[in-house]
């Protein structure tokens, strides 16, 4: 293999690992902030937000793992590949469903404020998360059962380049995938449009909270557009490869970063840092002060100390 190609591949792997670690560190800090304060973990809005963050962390980790196996091993065992794809595809489908759930919660909070605490309880929120995971896993699990019914046992013991189109390659599976994506995305867009205009009409007669919720719905739409990059990615890659056939590695790496990695950075920026209450506590844990305590000449203890806690202002 050409030395420049090897160097380019190693550099891309290093960039990918660094981006994954950085984004998961930020998202992990968001989860830590959520768990440490009852003002957040007892609020359905923040529960849905942190569920999306955890979902993004899982999706990003699996996507990077798939990318690394493609670079290092090229082919892996089909059974292990199916396991990784089930997680990756389920979490990918979960994201737009979670966005729709967050939009509905904002709609109820603004347009039905007196019933919000009755409808949006913590228990119902966790039940909704269970429904999201069920809907997210159904399409790919159906493909797995279809694969088990149609493929011989030797296929699952063989090695393959791990991608959805390579494993679930039957024409009926490809058609089903496109139909499911169209149904799910149409359903989510319908919810976003409906909640946006209902909140828009409410904003003319209510407080500034309605205007803020309206902007939040617009940000939901922006994130949904980023999610849709996953579905147009293969078409975009094919078009770029047709125009620039000599830049295969650069095109694959760039599209991978834009489609799979950068949208995972959108959640903390769009939601976590916009919220004043969450931002205040998030800063306490994002960076920590490292102190070194010496006990003997050749021994020391390193501790990571966060800023002192501040009582939440309800």
UniProtKB/TrEMBL annotation:
Annotated Pfam families: 7tm_1 (PF00001)
InterPro entries: GPCR1_Superfamily_Member, GPCR_Rhodpsn, GPCR_Rhodpsn_7TM
G-protein coupled receptors family 1 profile domain ranges (all copies): 26-271
KW Transmembrane (keyword) present: yes
SUPFAM superfamilies on file: Family A G protein-coupled receptor-like
Keywords per UniProt: Membrane, Transmembrane, Transmembrane helix
CDD domains: 7tm_classA_rhodopsin-like (cd00637)
Membrane-spanning ranges: 15-35, 47-66, 72-93, 125-149, 182-203, 224-244, 256-273
Primary location group: membrane
Localization of this protein: Membrane
Cellular component terms (Gene Ontology): membrane
Name of the protein in question: G-protein coupled receptors family 1 profile domain-containing protein
């Amino acid at each position: 293999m050409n030395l420049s190609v090897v160097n380019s591949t190693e550099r891309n792997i290093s960039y990918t690992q660094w981006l994954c670690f950085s984004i998961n560190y930020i998202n992990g800090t968001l989860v830590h902030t959520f768990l440490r304060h009852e003002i957040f973990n007892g609020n359905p809005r923040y529960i849905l937000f942190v569920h999306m963050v955890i979902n993004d962390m899982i999706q990003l980790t699996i996507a990077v793992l798939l990318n690394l196996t493609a670079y290092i091993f090229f082919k892996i065992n089909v059974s292990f590949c199916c396991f990784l794809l089930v997680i990756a595809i389920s979490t990918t489908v979960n994201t737009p469903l979670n966005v729709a759930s967050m939009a509905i919660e904002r709609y109820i909070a603004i347009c039905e404020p007196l019933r919000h605490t009755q409808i949006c309880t913590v228990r119902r929120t966790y039940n909704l998360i269970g429904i999201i995971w069920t809907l997210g896993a159904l399409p790919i699990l159906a493909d797995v059962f279809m694969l088990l019914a149609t493929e011989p046992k030797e296929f699952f013991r063989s090695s393959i380049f791990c991608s959805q189109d390579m494993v679930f390659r039957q024409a009926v599976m490809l058609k089903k995938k496109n139909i499911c994506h169209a149904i799910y995305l149409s359903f989510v867009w319908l919810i976003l449009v409906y909640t946006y205009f209902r909140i828009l009409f409410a904003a003319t007669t209510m407080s500034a909270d309605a205007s803020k919720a309206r902007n939040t719905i617009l940000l939901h739409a922006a994130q949904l557009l980023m999610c849709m990059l996953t579905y147009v990615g293969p078409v975009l890659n094919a078009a770029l490869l047709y125009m620039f056939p000599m830049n295969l590695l650069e095109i694959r790496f760039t599209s991978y970063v834009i489609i799979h990695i950068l949208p995972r950075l959108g959640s903390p920026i769009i939601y976590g840092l916009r919220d004043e209450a969450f931002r205040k506590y998030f800063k306490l844990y994002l960076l920590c002060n490292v102190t070194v305590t010496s006990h003997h000449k050749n021994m020391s203890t390193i501790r990571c100390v966060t800023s002192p806690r501040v009582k939440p202002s309800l």
